[in-house]
Amino acid sequence: MYLHPEAASAGAPSRDVLLVSAIITVSLSVTIVLCGICQWCQRKLGKRYKTSLETVGTPDSSRGRSEKKTIKLPAGGKAVTTAPVPGQPPQDESDRKTEPHSSVSDLVNSLTSEMLMLSPGSEDDEAHEGISRENLGRIQFSVGYNFQESTLTVKIMKAQELPAKDFSGTSDPFVKIYLLPDKKHKLETKVKRKNLNPHWNETFLFEGFPYEKVVQRVLYLQVLDYDRFSRNDPIGEVSIPLNKVDLTQMQTFWKDLKPCSDGSGSRGELLLSLCYNPSANSIVVNIIKARNLKAMDIGGTSDPYVKVWLMYKDKRVEKKKTVVMKRCLNPVFNESFAFDIPTERLRETTIVITVMDKDRLSRNDVIGKIYLSWKSGPGEVKHWKDMIARPRQAVAQWHQLKA
Fold it and tell me: 3-class DSSP state for residue 399?
């Protein structure tokens, strides 16, 4: 077939247009693909950089608050997630599937797992804070002055959360009232039998006491546990200078009890270990050593030995004792005693350890005591729980001797 030259030239531009269009289309497609790849890389690189920053602990106030809040709340065994950081876009579903857990989630999950592994009633919070002093309870009282009658009025109202001093897990508290520095003249409340939250509501009058002398005195309250057969055990004390009190009207105070100035702080410490064997139904008490014991003899020393009583409820079951260490305030005993204790009796069992001073010519003196059970002070309860939690292991701990 013959084509006219003009017709052939007319078809040529159409081919050029198609070729140019194809080139433009391919270029745009490549540009779009490259742009998408670039955004994907930026997003991935940004997430990877963020994760690395979290790993080294970059400060982030909002994330820190979220972690703190999550760790405090009980997880209950469920997975813990962190709140999104403000100002950042949410993750895509595809990214959430392929991206590994961030270090923040790992930290929260690990901490939550450690919290769940702690046994109920664990004392680990006290370990983080160091050795905290024993809670001795608190007392409520009021004081005021009658200028017309020159009389100071002190009212002892009540106490709360007193520690148990008796074998039965309770106390028989009463209060002594002094106006220091005078210790000869004192007043006392009635004894409240077997009561750790006693109510006294007793009023005491110091009559014929000029105001200028009253403001020079210190009101001193001492809470004690009454003991019929031996010395009363001090529980705690409160002192308040009267020159710092507005005595024109009755002022009421709640005060935490502090250790008595002549109490356990100067009696020394005892190191002992406990080993519980559940299969043998036994506890082995090892009296290891003591330090800084209180001197009970005229020569400034003591002849210490240790008595160990096994108590079940209010009854004494069995007694063991160490040898006497002559003239020694830092004795080393290293003596072990085994006691048979059925598992079902553990919660009603108390091991009473008494450090004594041997006296040949008179009655032996008590240097200090330790009560080990579920119901003792925080340090003693921690030792008892550690013993139960680690069967067949000797768990050692220092204990402060108490009056």
Answer: strand
* Torsion angle defined by CA atoms of residues 227, 224, 303 and 293, in that order, rounded to the nearest 10 degrees: 160
pTM, full prediction: 0.42
Distances in Å between the alpha carbon of 132 and those of 122, 123, 238, 252? 15, 11, 19, 28
- The pLDDT tens digits along the chain (403 residues) read 444 544 444 445 567 767 777 777 777 776 665 655 554 454 444 444 333 333 333 333 333 333 332 223 233 333 333 333 344 444 433 333 333 333 333 333 333 333 333 333 333 333 333 333 568 899 999 999 999 999 999 999 999 999 988 767 789 999 999 998 887 778 999 999 999 999 999 999 998 889 999 999 999 999 999 877 666 778 999 999 999 999 999 999 999 999 876 544 468 899 999 999 999 999 999 999 999 898 887 778 899 999 999 999 878 999 999 999 999 999 999 999 999 998 888 889 999 999 999 987 778 888 989 999 988 778 888 999 999 999 999 999 999 898 7
Distance between CA atoms of 324 and 356, rounded to whole angstroms?
9
Closest CA to 220 of 201, 230, 234: 234
Using CB atoms within 10 Å of the CB of residue 246, give its burial: 0 to 12 exposed, 13 to 18 middle, 19+ buried.
exposed
